[in-house]
Amino acid sequence: MVNPRIKSLSAYKTERTSARVKLSSNELSIEFPGDVRKRIAEVLSELPFNRYPDPQVQELKEVVAQRFGVRTENLMLGNGSDELIYYLSVAIGDQNRGIFYPVPTFSMYGISAQVFGRERVEIRLNSFFDIDLEESLRLVQEKKPALAYFSYPNNPTGNLFSEKSIVSIRSQGVFTVLDEAYFHYSKRTFLKDALEREDTVVLRTLSKIGMAGLRVGIMIGKEEVIKDIEKIRLPFNITYPSQVIARLMLTEFYPLIEEEVERVIRERERVYSALLSMEGVEPFPSSANFILFRTYIPADLLHKKLIEKGVLVRNFSYMEGLEGCLRVSIGKPEENDAFLEALEGVLKEMA
Ligand code: PMP
């Protein structure tokens, strides 16, 4: 029989509706040119996929290490950072000590805690979506969680939490994970701490910079910490195609990605200003590749009407504290225009 704890889980929600303009999953909207695709096809056609891939993922690790300015010994790779979140939730601290995270945030922290039967120590973010430090410290002292997750910047609110608050919570003896999935859009990091301290690791991912389908997540930490967590990694968790495609993308084709990332950052400011100027729309400032916004129109209805106009965004209005909120990923300029036009259209129709 299935464990009741697992039976009562609500699985990770993904948006499966298809739409002409997909701005729902914080992917990088990028079309790789023909020569890039041709090169990948060539490399894949040579791939001895009847064999297991390199279990240590050494060649890809070397490229990642170089890109992120660390040593390969500081790296552990996962099948997406989702897999690394699972590993952390099982590897860090005694199982009867809880897992702390501010909410609303990325749902995998809570899901992994539930999967492993650990107490979810949740604290509501304040009205600026920042950490309520006083309440957090009180809760940490009371519940004594062993592990804390901070999405930095936070998904889905888009802001960076106060560094001082994160450091204060960590100083209570809590192993701290900085989930920097959106690092390329924020350029802010705790990397130095992760390399120097035994109570801190940083998570990154290739998913938000054009490679979501490859499923490559990255953990960065001190060699000793990485060595221990590596012991629970499933063998061959990074597939052969992912290893070789990611390596090509991070070397030969990286300038292409960098260019698109910078464009998204510029587009983010343009979309934010456009939302700000719309009556009845309240966008929240973002350091990521998406923007959360609140409207006076019922969010479910707005979400549906945008789909009818061919634009898919993510509806977060079901989350406590995010009533009336939708999240739009920043895409190509023409996709962002399509979104802004569709939103303006719906607002006009509903006025
Ligand atoms: N962390 C955060 C904060 C995210 O938003 C996401 C993706 N939605 C992930 C981790 C998971 O990323 P990956 O594709 O690497 O599993």
Short recap of the structure:
By secondary structure, the protein is α/β, with parallel strands linked by helices. It has helices at 4-7, 34-45, 58-68, 80-91, 108-115, 133-143, 163-170, 183-186, 191-196, 223-230, 240-250, 254-276, 299-308, 333-350; strands spanning 21-22, 75-78, 99-103, 120-124, 147-151, 175-179, 200-205, 217-220, 281-283, 290-295, 311-312, 314-315, 325-329. The protein has two domains: 4-31 and 255-350, Aspartate Aminotransferase, domain 1; 48-251, 3-Layer(aba) Sandwich (Aspartate Aminotransferase, domain 2).
Identify the notable features of this structure and list them briefly.
14 helices, Aspartate Aminotransferase, domain 2, 351 residues, 7-stranded mixed sheet, 2 domains, 4-stranded antiparallel sheet, binds 4'-deoxy-4'-aminopyridoxal-5'-phosphate, alpha/beta, 15% strand, Aspartate Aminotransferase, domain 1
How would you characterize the overall build of this protein?
By secondary structure, the chain is of the alpha/beta class. The protein contains 14 helices and 13 strands. The chain has helices at residues 4-7, 34-45, 58-68, 80-91, 108-115, 133-143, 163-170, 183-186, 191-196, 223-230, 240-250, 254-276, 299-308, 333-350; strands at 21-22, 75-78, 99-103, 120-124, 147-151, 175-179, 200-205, 217-220, 281-283, 290-295, 311-312, 314-315, 325-329. Strands 2-8-7-6-5-3-4 form a seven-stranded mixed beta sheet, sandwiched between helices. Strands 9-10-13-12 form a four-stranded antiparallel beta sheet, with helices on one face. The protein has a two-stranded parallel ribbon with strand order 1-11. It is globular. The model has no long low-confidence stretch (mean pLDDT 96). The structure holds 4'-deoxy-4'-aminopyridoxal-5'-phosphate (PMP).
